[in-house]
Specification:
Shape: globular
Largest sheet: none
Number of strands: 0
Radius of gyration: 17 Å
Helix content: over 70%
Strand content: under 5%
Number of helices: 8
C-alpha cells in the first residue's frame, strides 16, 4: 500500500511539474533539461506514453535552441528511441539512434557517457532487428568512444559490457575483440 502511495504521489508531483512547465516561458535549453528529468522519471515509473510526450517536447525545445542540432539534441533523440524500442518499434528506434549517433559525432562532449549509452542502445536494437554484424560494429564504436573519453571503468558501462556479451553469445560469436 505504501508503494502505491509513493508512486501515486510521484506521479502527482510529476504531473504538476509538467503542467507548470507547459505554462511557463522558460528558455528552451532550460525547458529541455527539465523535460529530460521529468520524462526520465516517467520512463522509470513505466509511464511510457507520458514520457514520450515529455521527450518529444524536449526535442522540440532543443530544436528551438539549436536549429542545426547539438549535443542536447542527440540526447533528446536517444531518449525518444527508448520509448520506440519499448513499444517494439525497432526500426524507428534505430532511425532515431542513427540520427543521434551522427549528432554526437558533429558535437562531441568531454564526458561521453550519453554517447556511449546511445551507441550501446543502437547495438541492442540492431541485434533485435537481426543485424548482428552491425550491432557488433556499433558496440565496438561504443567501446572506442568510452576508451577515448576515459570512462571504461565507469559503473554505468556495466550494461554496455553485458549487452556486448549477450549479442556476441546469442549471435554465435566465439570471440569478439572490443579492444577494451
Amino acid at each position: 500500500a505504501i508503494e502505491n502511495l509513493n508512486i501515486n504521489t510521484n506521479l502527482e508531483v510529476l504531473d504538476s511539474a509538467a503542467i507548470r512547465l507547459d505554462a511557463d516561458s522558460l528558455p528552451p535549453e532550460l525547458s529541455a533539461d527539465i523535460r529530460s528529468i521529468i520524462g526520465g522519471t516517467y520512463l522509470s515509473l513505466g509511464e511510457y506514453a507520458i514520457a514520450d510526450t515529455q521527450f518529444t517536447k524536449m526535442l522540440a525545445e532543443r530544436r528551438k535552441a539549436a536549429p542545426n542540432g547539438d549535443y542536447g539534441t542527440a540526447v533528446a533523440l536517444s531518449k525518444l528511441s527508448l520509448i520506440q524500442e519499448n513499444n517494439g518499434h525497432f526500426e524507428q528506434a534505430d532511425s532515431l539512434l542513427l540520427l543521434a549517433e551522427q549528432m554526437y559525432e558533429r558535437h562531441p562532449h568531454p564526458e561521453p557517457l550519453e554517447e556511449v549509452g546511445a551507441l550501446e542502445n543502437r547495438g541492442r536494437v540492431l541485434h533485435l532487428l537481426g543485424r548482428g554484424k552491425e550491432a557488433v560494429e556499433v558496440l565496438r564504436k561504443a567501446f572506442a568512444v568510452a576508451r577515448a573519453g576515459n570512462v571504461m571503468g565507469d559503473p554505468s558501462m556495466a550494461t554496455t559490457y553485458v549487452n556486448a556479451a549477450v549479442i556476441a553469445t546469442v549471435g554465435g560469436v566465439d570471440h569478439v575483440q572490443y579492444d577494451a
